[in-house]
Specification:
It contains six helices and ten strands, in the order ββαβββαβββββαααα. By secondary structure, the chain is α+β, with helices and mostly antiparallel strands. A six-stranded mixed β-sheet has the order 3-4-5-6-7-8, sandwiched between helices. A two-stranded antiparallel sheet has the order 1-2. A two-stranded antiparallel ribbon has the order 9-10.
């Protein structure tokens, strides 16, 4: 829980959406607009974590007011981002902050402390100056620094690990976002989609061959059977159709679906 602080005079209900201030224990903290080198990574970061298959709520600059004299707006928030007007009570499960040129380290440290004190489980600080890296903050644990090529994890918040580069590099972010979107539709990754396409293409090719053989032999096929053959996704079922087509003759009459 939060310890005693020198309390300032301001309350969160005195601020409105669009104001350039946050509050820490009643003290107003001006938040300058994001520069060009920081705005693009912000967009990439929320795309990567926001489309994770386990995430249902994510936002940018969401205002959190866990107490009347507190208002914090992390660059990216995951979890506890309700689609409702007004400041959000509590804190996000995962918060991401981007530290660019001119970052006030004292202000950043206070923001990290406030969010962790009020319930944020994971807070990632993406350093955009100097060697690229991410500082991982968790309540009661030492800060960890994770470098490009390594993975970030947020158990019970994100399903997939996040490569450090995906939080600021467009190519890495696009790959991570694509994987997340595919998983939300039931595919593990792009390779799984391609494999599925090859399999479906093979099945359709076999189905068309069966129908061509029957047509060449003058064997009529009813519409229900034609649809069943062309829509089949079972190799075993297509094998059975192939066996039947191999022995049927025009004298056999209509080629119909049957078990």
């Amino acid at each position: 829980m939060v310890t005693a602080y020198d309390m300032g005079p301001f309350h969160a209900d005195q601020l409105h959406s669009g104001d350039e201030y946050e509050l820490s224990h009643g003290h107003a903290i001006r938040c300058a607009p994001t520069g060009g080198s920081g705005s693009e990574p912000n967009r990439l970061g929320v795309s990567v974590v926001g489309w994770d298959p386990q995430v249902t709520e994510a936002g940018v600059d969401t205002g959190y007011s866990p107490a009347p004299d507190m208002l914090r707006a992390p660059d990216v928030a995951v979890g506890n981002v309700p689609n409702k007007p007004g400041w959000v009570k509590g804190a996000p499960a995962l918060a991401i902050e981007y530290a660019d040129i001119g970052q006030n380290e004292g202000t950043l440290a206070a923001k990290i402390r406030d969010l962790l004190d009020f319930g944020t489980r994971y807070l990632w600080v993406v350093r955009l100056t100097g060697p690229r890296r991410v500082e991982v903050h968790e309540p009661g644990k030492p800060v960890q620094t994770v470098y490009p090529g390594s993975m970030l994890t947020a158990p019970d918040v994100l399903k997939n690990p996040v490569r450090v580069e995906a939080l600021y590099d467009r190519d890495a972010a696009e790959r991570a976002t694509l994987t997340n979107l595919l998983q939300r539709r039931g595919y593990e990754d792009l390779d799984a989609v391609l494999a599925k396409g090859r399999e479906e293409g093979l099945h359709l090719g076999v189905a068309r061959s069966i129908l061509r053989v029957l047509a060449a032999r003058g064997v009529p096929v009813d519409e229900a059977t034609r649809l069943r053959i062309t829509s089949s996704t079972s190799t075993e079922e297509l094998d059975r159709w192939t066996d039947r087509a191999a022995v049927v003759t025009s004298a056999a009459g209509l080629f119909e679906a049957r078990e």
